[in-house]
Each structure stands twice: as C-alpha cells, then as structure tokens.
Design brief:
Elements lengths: L8 H6 L16 H10 L1 H34 L6 H6 L9 H5 L4 H4 L13 E6 L3 E2 L13 E2 L8 H18 L3 E6 L13 H11 L25 E4 L5 H16 L5 E6 L4 H11 L7 E5 L8 H17 L8 H7 L9 H4 L4 H4 L49
Parallel strand pairs: 1-4, 1-6, 4-5, 6-7
Antiparallel strand pairs: 2-3
Helix pairs in contact: 10-11
The structure holds 2-acetamido-2-deoxy-beta-D-glucopyranose.
Length: 405
C-alpha cells in the first residue's frame, strides 16, 4: 500500500476488537441469557448501540421541540395569573385585586404606591441621552470637562444636549398630563462610573433648577392641582440605543403611571427624526398621528457629515434590523453595557414580553443616497399585540414602506 493512502475502513474493521470477552459456550442458557448472548455477539452489539443512540436522539429532539413550542407560545405569554397561582399564598392580607391581576411579582408590586394623579398622565415626552454629565456646577454644563464624551462629541455637542433637556422641560410645562423621561443607560466604559446617562441628565436639569417642586394651579376643568414638575420627571436607566430609548421609555411610563402613553413627543437630534418617526415608532406600531419629533441639531454651519453618518450608521442599519438585534447594531449594544446591567422591564411589563424578544431576520432594501429619499419609507412593524394599539384596524398602519425591495 502506498504510504500516502489512508487505510481503508475495512482494514480497521478486520482487526479483531473485543468489546466483551466471548462467553463460554453453554447450551443450558435460560431464555433471557440467550437473548443477552445474541445481543452481545458483535454485529448485534452494533445494532444495539445504534438503537440506543437513536433513542437518545429522538427523545432529545422531542424535548427540544417541546421547549421551542412552549417558549414561543405559553412562556412568552404569561397569563395574569402567573404569580397568583405560584406564589400569592401569604400575601393575601396585603394585595389588591389589581395587584393580583398585574402579572408582576407581588414582592415588587406590593412596594409600589402611586399618587392617583399619575394615572391621568397620557403624554410621554422622551429625551434620549447621548453622554454622561458628571458635574455639579450649573455654570459649567456647556463645557466638555464635566462630561464623558467620545472624541467626536467634543466639538460643542454638549450645548445641544443641554438644549434637548431644556426643550423637554418646556414641553412638560405646556402639558399638565405629560411625563418627562430622560432615557439612557450606563453606556460608558470605566473609568466612567456606572452612572446611567438618564440620571446624569436628570442631575443636570436639577442643577439648572429646571424642575422645581413649585405647586401648579389647576387649569380650567381640572379639579385637582397637577403634579409639580419635579414629580413628572423620571429616568429610564437601561436603554443602549435609540430603539431601546423609545421602547424602554414606554415601558418606564407604564411603571410610573400604570398605563401606556396615548401621545409621544421625542426631543432629540434633528438628523435622527426620520429614524425615530419612520423606523422606531413604526416598529412599535405606535400611531403616526400621536407621535411628535422635535429636532435640535448642533449649531454648525454645515451638518452634511452628520446627516451622511446618520444615514450610514443609524437609519440604514435600523431599516434592515428594526430592533437592532443583528450586527452591526447588536455589536454596538455589546460595547455599551460595560457594567453588565439587566433591565427590569420584562418584570414590570409582562404584556410586552414578545415585543422585547422580537428579532426579525435581516431585511434588504434598495439603497438610496440621502435621508430625504427615505421620506415615506417606513420600517417593519411588530405584528403582535401591543397594549397602546389594541384597537388597531388592519391596514391602519403602513406595515412596510412603499417599496419592499
Ligand atoms: C391618539 O390621540 C388621540 C387624541 O389625543 C386619542 O384619543 C387616541 O386614543 C390616541 N391613540 C392611541 C393609540 O393612544
């Protein structure tokens, strides 16, 4: 045999391998011993091994299928009785029927008591965070030193962040039924502290004395005094990208008010208007007519680079992956969670479990050269049930852009 030829399988099998020492010949075997002996002869043994392997494989397949089927139906649709049936014993003297129905663990739900006026809020004003402010001094909010910034954010962007916060508060003052939510997680690597962008924005708003506790007198038709501004400014501390800014601030609105918003106003970068309006809002199936975007850009003579960057690194990737669950967007999120934070919204918003886990396959679209050319092109919408759009009629919403190319 030439040395470069591999030995043939038959040459291996010809070598006598002994799995068991041969049994002594015995003609007085009981029937069970006979069966055993038959099985133990070499070819039968192989058959037995194959049979056992197949048995293992098929049972594992069945278990897996069972798991998949269960997880796509019942596991992600917890009934409101999830916690009632498993763990309501012992809480009986504390809980209310609505807490029992909430589907939220009673150990958490029984720590929550809301001012009844929160349930009248219906307007979410969201300011997405872009960086972390570590300062204390109101005089220096417009200087880079007190901020944790990416190199490209050092050309005056912090002034824009401060404007976003100020404008968010102005919108809040205009509507006594609004809740202002600063949104953004602890996205920066050490040596940045594990401080969420949202808390730093909230700190900044207080440093500028924008959110006073001054009582507000009721307007016509209101029987009670509205909640003061400081009580209507909350933080959403986990979002890792703009899609999560919108989704998680809706979930946070539910935590604070015990209901979902009917109107949403986002105050952010002008160049991101199309991303929020045509993609994120559409992904969440929130009605277009109840959604407002207020865009404020950096104060620069030429923003064309900003718009080109937004098209390439923001709009197009989110058009192809509405929830950002594929690269490159998923990779960005990996880098933005250096402190290994787990958000609480699966627990507080069990009705949104399917939406949180929604990960449609990558879409492909015809490439266009500027954001303007995507006017009227809407991203894919979540097809499942969402509480803010429960009465949605088929065809109300453009599920796909005009072109599905
Ligand atoms: C949209 O706003 C209108 C008017 O404020 C309101 O009646 C309606 O319920 C809102 N739609 C949703 C889905 O919340």
């Amino acid at each position: 045999m030439p040395s470069n030829m591999l030995p043939l399988p038959s040459s291996t099998s010809k070598r006598n391998r002994t799995y068991f020492p041969s049994l002594p010949t015995n003609h007085n075997l009981s029937s069970s011993q006979q069966v055993l002996q038959t099985l133990r002869s070499r070819t039968r043994l192989t058959n037995l091994a194959v049979f056992l392997l197949l048995l293992c494989l098929s049972s594992s397949l069945i278990l897996n299928l069972n798991y998949l089927l269960l997880s796509s139906s019942s596991t992600f649709r917890p009934s409101s009785s999830t916690y009632r049936t498993t763990s309501s014993k012992g809480w009986d003297d504390l809980i209310t029927p609505s807490q029992l129905r909430s589907g939220i663990p009673l150990s958490i739900e029984t720590t929550i008591e809301r001012d009844p006026r929160y349930s009248e809020l219906n307007h979410l004003i969201m300011v997405p965070g872009h960086a972390i402010w570590l300062g204390h001094d109101a005089d220096k909010v417009n200087e880079n030193d007190d901020w944790i910034l990416e190199p490209m954010q050092k050309g005056g962007s912090v002034r824009t962040y401060v404007k976003h916060i100020q404008r968010g508060v102005e919108e809040l003052k205009r509507d006594n039924n609004a809740l202002l939510i600063f949104s953004g997680g602890a996205t920066r690597l050490p040596p940045s502290p594990p401080l969420p962008e949202a808390i730093s924005y909230h700190n900044l708003a207080h440093a500028l004395d924008l959110l006073p506790s001054t009582p507000i007198s009721p307007s016509d038709g209101e029987s009670k005094a509205p909640l003061s501004l400081n009580l209507r400014a909350a933080t959403e501390e986990y979002a890792l990208d703009s899609y999560e800014n919108l989704l998680f601030s809706i979930a946070r609105f539910k935590e604070v008010t015990d209901r979902y918003p009917e109107r949403i106003t986002v105050v952010g970068y002008g160049m991101k208007e199309r991303r929020f309006t045509n993609l994120h809002r559409s992904a969440l199936a929130f009605p277009l007519q109840n959604f407002t975007y207020i865009g404020i850009n950096d104060d620069l003579p030429d923003l064309s680079k900003h718009y080109a960057g937004e098209l390439k690194f923001g709009f197009k990737p989110f058009l192809n992956s509405p929830t950002g669950c594929h690269p490159p967007l998923s990779t960005k999120k990996l880098l933005r969670n250096p402190y290994i934070k787990y958000h609480p919204y699966h627990t507080s918003n069990p009705e949104l479990l399917e939406l949180f886990e929604w990960c449609p396959p990558l879409q492909s679209h015809r490439e266009r050269d500027s954001l303007d050319e995507y006017e009227g092109v809407y991203g894919m919408s979540f097809g499942g049930w969402v509480p803010w759009n429960a009465g949605r009629m088929e065809g109300d919403e453009v599920t796909w852009g005009r072109e599905r190319d």
